[in-house]
Design a protein that fits this description.
The protein has helices at 23-30, 39-52, 70-78, 88-96, 113-122, 132-144, 180-192, 213-231, 257-270, 284-287, 320-324, 412-416; strands at residues 9-12, 15-18, 21-22, 34-38, 58-63, 82-85, 104-106, 126-129, 149-156, 178-179, 196-202, 238-240, 277-280, 291-302, 307-311, 330-332, 342-347, 356-363, 370-373, 394-399, 402-407. It folds into two domains: 9-38 and 288-415, Lyase, Ornithine Decarboxylase, Chain A, domain 1 (Beta Barrel), CATH 2.40.37; 107-282, Alanine racemase (TIM Barrel). The N and C termini lie far apart (58 Å). 29% of the residues lie in helices and 25% in strands. It binds pyridoxal-5'-phosphate.
């Protein structure tokens, strides 16, 4: 059978294996719920970007909000990546994982003064600035600390990425970026502020994008601006086209990373901008299909209109289905003979009707079986919470024939630390 997503995940003799490791065995050894990642899958995903960019000045900044576990960051830092961060907490994680501030770009609409000061002190590569107010504030903070802040303006190119409204970010009605028609003025403003140095331009038009065309439209809009800005004597060193490339959850057919990169480089060349440094900020496409979430079936509860398969993972472990009604494949880790497939809603123990991982799934299962939710490497653990006072899951990274525990299951005591009785 073909599984959506990663070629690293195969079913052999009825048993699901990730990089050769039996998922049932990992579940029994480390307990559930459990995130399992293939380091090889992450490395091959980033190699696709790097190979397509070979011979060009470039930097791939992993958008770490997709999965910010330290061993994941370490993997990408060693592979030569920079990082796209959206908080000072993410910056501290980059540094703790051995990443370089000089290769880190700082995105986000709501940067606070203390975050700016810490990022300046650490020496981030640039701030992706999203408003006039942020330019003013960053200039003040930089001057107060005797620093010069390198800035790129995040432009909202007003293109439709054709994706879910919650993950579409490049349209006029979004909170993100500076409107295209105001961007030239914002560059003049930035150039006039003594604490700032203009170095680049960026955009990020959305997530889970499965077409190349919206990227080309966005790049064209950026290059129009670059030309207008440079006519006024400013220099734009790099063009950052953001992230957002989709992955296969079910039957989506996103372009391969090298096809996307190739198309964008060709457009840069044809418009005479081929010499410029290009930055990418991929998140999901580097980690999404590299991970699965393992969970154990607790109860099979049959009802008059619905059958519920109650598992030990829930919306606090994997929020995407509840938050975006995202469809994620669910597979038994070991196929069973002699049990008929039935239709199940796969739900967690959290006290919310929105707590489901999959609806109307045909599964041949019994209590105690291990299920795998596929393509769970991105926006899984990173969005996990302690709702219902549930400890967060453990995480495993597969490296060759080794299974490394990269995050312990959270002890319940840790959930109460920092709290005080009256
Ligand atoms: C979330 C985000 C990304 C990464 O998006 P993916 O869809 O995970 O690739 C890149 N840049 C910015 C500014 C983001 O907010």
């Amino acid at each position: 059978m073909t599984l959506p997503g990663s070629p690293h995940l195969v079913r052999l003799a009825g048993e699901l294996r990730l990089d050769g490791h039996s998922l049932v065995d990992l579940a029994h050894r480390f307990g559930t719920p459990l995130f399992v990642y293939s380091q090889a899958a992450m490395l091959s995903a980033v190699a696709a970007y790097h190979q397509a960019l070979q011979g060009r000045p470039h930097l791939v900044c992993y958008a770490m909000k997709a999965n910010s576990s330290l061993a994941v960051l370490q993997t990408f830092a060693r592979a030569g990546c920079g990082f796209d961060i959206v908080s000072v907490g993410e910056l501290e994680r980059v540094l703790a994982a051995g990443g370089s501030a000089a290769k880190t770009v700082f995105s986000g609409v709501g940067k606070k003064r203390d975050e700016m000061a810490r990022a300046l002190e650490a020496g981030v590569r640039c701030f992706n600035v999203e408003s006039h107010g942020e330019l003013v504030r960053l200039d003040e903070v930089a001057r107060a600390h005797g620093k010069l802040a390198r800035v790129s303006l995040r432009v909202n190119p007003d293109v439709d990425a054709g994706t879910h409204p919650y993950i579409s970010t490049g349209l006029k009605g979004n909170k993100f970026g500076i409107a295209h028609h105001e961007a030239l003025d914002a560059y003049r403003h930035a150039a006039a502020l003594p604490g700032l140095e203009v170095v680049g331009i960026d955009c990020h038009i959305g997530s889970q994008i499965v077409q190349i065309a919206p990227y080309l439209d966005a790049l064209d809009r950026l290059l129009d601006l670059v030309e207008a800005v440079e006519r006024e004597g400013l220099v734009i060193h790099h063009v950052d086209v953001g992230g957002g490339l989709g992955i296969t959850y079910t039957d989506e057919a996103p372009p391969a990373a090298d096809a996307l990169v190739g198309a964008l480089l060709a457009r840069l060349d044809s418009r005479g901008h081929g010499w410029r440094e290009v930055l990418f900020e991929p998140g999901r496409s580097l980690v999404g299909n590299a991970g699965v979430l393992l969970t154990e079936v607790q109860y099979l509860k049959r009802g008059p209109t619905k059958n519920f398969c109650i598992v030990d993972a829930a919306m606090n472990d994997l929020l995407r289905p509840a938050m975006y009604e995202a469809w994620m494949a669910i597979e038994p880790c070991r196929q069973r003979d002699g049990i008929a497939a039935e239709t199940w809603d796969v739900v967690g123990p959290v006290c919310e009707s929105g707590d489901w991982l999959g609806r109307d799934r045909r599964l041949a299962i019994s209590e105690g079986d291990t299920l795998a939710v596929l393509s769970a490497g991105a926006y899984g653990m990173a969005m996990a919470s302690n709702y219902n006072t549930r400890p967060r899951a453990a995480e495993i990274m597969l490296v060759g024939d080794q299974a490394h525990l990269i995050r312990e299951r959270e002890p319940i005591q840790a959930l109460m630390s920092g709290e005080r009785l009256l």
